[in-house]
Design a protein that fits this description.
Largest sheet: 11 strands, mixed
Shape: globular
Number of helices: 8
Strand content: 25-35%
CATH superfamily of the largest domain: Pseudouridine synthase
Number of domains: 2
């Protein structure tokens, strides 16, 4: 006989701030509410913000289903500077003058990345090689061969450009590294680039507009938290 689902068996939509890792947020919620099983559906880099789906209790059984959903991100790219991590947190490895691009020229280049892509994960990433996360190897100055992975970009479009920074939106499948898109776009344009800011807007049917800020979550009582949880049965029926 199946036991009834607890009020905390399900998913919680968090608006992640810049700074903490996705794992930091999982740990904080586990400790604060004394929930044994807590996970997340898709890592956001420490400097990234936006929608982080946290699964609680038996909701962790649905993490693969929720993680497989398509994503939409908004962010900004800085042209003329290449970093080792492909984002603003990395070390500068090259700086070049930025040609006088128009918004149309940048969008024409971005459009070439729409469709199926074999994307190489950056060394500074959570992808594992022989059981070791690549970022741990990168910290030791070790670079290893990585396997390119098939991803799909539905749309990659800039709506504003003021040299050297462009604001963009990208819709893509799970596992797409937006940092790699920024880096590869910079290489295509001949001046280099890195991801300056990133915000996850949607994951599948869930939107950051419906999320609660992380700092506010920690102020809730357990009963108040339960009111924010999307029930297990609702998620599994979708």
């Amino acid at each position: 006989m199946l036991r009834e689902f607890d009020a905390l068996d399900g998913a919680l939509l968090i608006d992640k701030p810049a700074g903490p890792t996705s794992h930091d947020i999982v740990d904080a919620i586990r400790r604060q509410f004394r929930i044994k099983k807590v996970g997340h559906c898709g890592t956001l880099d420490p400097n990234a913000t936006g929608l982080l789906i946290i699964v609680l209790g038996r909701g962790t059984k649905l993490s693969e289903k929720m993680m497989s959903a398509d994503k939409i991100y908004a962010g900004s790219i800085k042209f003329g500077e290449t970093t080792d991590s492909y984002d603003a947190a990395g070390q500068l490895v090259a700086a070049l003058p930025v040609p006088q691009f128009t918004l149309e020229q940048i969008n024409a280049a971005a459009a070439t990345f729409v469709g199926d892509l074999m994307q190489m994960p950056p060394m500074v990433s959570a992808v594992k090689k022989d059981g070791v996360a690549l970022y741990k190897l990168a910290r030791k100055g070790i670079e290893v061969e990585r396997e390119a992975r098939l991803v799909h970009v539905y749309n990659f479009h800039f709506d504003h450009y003021s040299e050297p920074i462009g604001s963009f939106c990208v819709a893509c499948t799970k596992g797409t590294y937006v940092r790699s898109l920024a880096h590869d776009l910079g290489q295509k344009l001949g001046c280099g680039a890195h991801l300056k800011t990133l915000r996850r807007v949607t994951s599948g049917k869930y939107n950051v507009a419906d999320a609660i800020e992380f700092e506010e979550v920690l102020k809730l009582s357990t009963d108040e938290l339960a009111q924010r949880v999307i029930p297990f049965l609702k998620i599994s029926a979708d």
